[in-house]
């Protein structure tokens, strides 16, 4: 599929059920062998959809400063068939020791969207030219290679995924 067949748009409340299913399917695929199998098997599409409804409701309550990019933002990926194929989110850093003010929270794509250029578009739209950090699961070599290609390097920060204890590394890109 060509890049032009894929579209990005802001998360809407009506996306949440489908995004919950897509998000959890991406996690089960991307983190197989990296996170405990019982944790991945127990992921709930419904709970995820409920969380996305909270995010969508908050986004509607916050006046986004798109030019300054001060509010968290989530974009969904719409595939050529009109269905959702992933999302990306970014916003102010959540880290107490943040080396940048901005954080790329997630770029999660279904296998069908990988290699289409849409992940690059998500980073461009969500981060732009600013400095930013992100957290990536250690061992997720596909994601690390993508972020490295986009100018991110291992910053030295280490953490753990709260629910599983899976090791994560912080990467940074300076503008």
Please outline the major beta sheet. Answer: 7 strands, mixed
So how many helices?
A: 5
**Average pLDDT rating:** 92
CATH architectural label: 3-Layer(aba) Sandwich
Q: Which CATH C-level class is it?
A: Alpha Beta
* Class per helix and strand makeup: alpha+beta
Shape: globular
CATH fold call: Aminopeptidase
The parts where pLDDT drops under 50 for at least 5 residues are 63-67
Number of strands: 7
The CATH homologous superfamily is called: Gcn5-related N-acetyltransferase (GNAT)
How much of the polypeptide forms β-strand, as a percent range? 25-35%
Intertermini distance = 31 Å
> Measured on Cα atoms, how large is the radius of gyration?
15 Å
Strand order of the largest sheet: 1-2-3-4-5-7-6
Organism: Terrabacter ginsenosidimutans
Pfam families: Acetyltransf_1
Domain N-acetyltransferase: 6-175
Protein name: GNAT family N-acetyltransferase
């Amino acid at each position: 599929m060509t890049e032009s067949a894929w579209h990005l748009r802001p998360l809407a409340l009506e996306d949440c059920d489908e995004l919950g299913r897509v998000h959890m399917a991406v996690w089960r695929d991307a983190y197989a062998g990296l996170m405990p199998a019982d944790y991945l098997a127990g992921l709930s599409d419904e709970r995820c959809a409920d969380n996305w409804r909270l995010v969508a409701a908050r986004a509607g309550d916050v006046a986004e400063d798109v030019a300054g990019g001060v509010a968290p933002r989530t974009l969904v990926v719409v595939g050529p068939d009109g269905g959702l194929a992933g999302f990306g989110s970014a916003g102010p850093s959540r880290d107490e020791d943040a080396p940048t003010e901005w954080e790329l929270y997630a770029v999660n794509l279904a296998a069908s969207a990988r290699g289409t250029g849409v992940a690059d578009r998500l980073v461009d739209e969500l981060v732009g030219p600013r400095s930013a950090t992100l957290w990536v699961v250690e061992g997720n070599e596909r994601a690390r290679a993508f972020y490295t290609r986009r100018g991110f390097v291992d910053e030295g920060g280490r953490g753990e995924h709260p629910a599983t204890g899976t090791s994560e590394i912080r990467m940074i890109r300076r503008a």
